[in-house]
Amino acid sequence: YIRHSSELLESLQQKKEDIASEALLARRDGLRKDVSDRNVVLKGLIDRLRNLQVALRILHGRDSVDPAASSVAMEEI
Q1: C-alpha dist (Å) from residue 51 to 19, 22, 40
Q2: pLDDT digit string (tens) for 49-66?
């Protein structure tokens, strides 16, 4: 009886751990998807800012501005 009870308790504990592991894996996958979605948004934003920087250079007639000066100009904007 004692051996059978201990086996049942071990089995129950293992099932709880499996369920917890599945929940953690699902949460991890959800968080990975959120991070991936945010990265896509940030990459799009960076591309738009680069395009704006090029447009501003063209507007001001400074096509061949060095990167340091253009970053200062972007900070002013």
Answers
A1: 48, 44, 17
A2: 999 988 888 888 766 556
Tokens found for residue 2: 């004692």
CA distance 32 to 38: 10
Q: Domain extents for the chain?
A: 2-76
Q: In residues, how long is the chain?
A: 77
Instruction: Give pTM, 2 decimals.
Output: 0.50
CA distance 77 to 62: 15
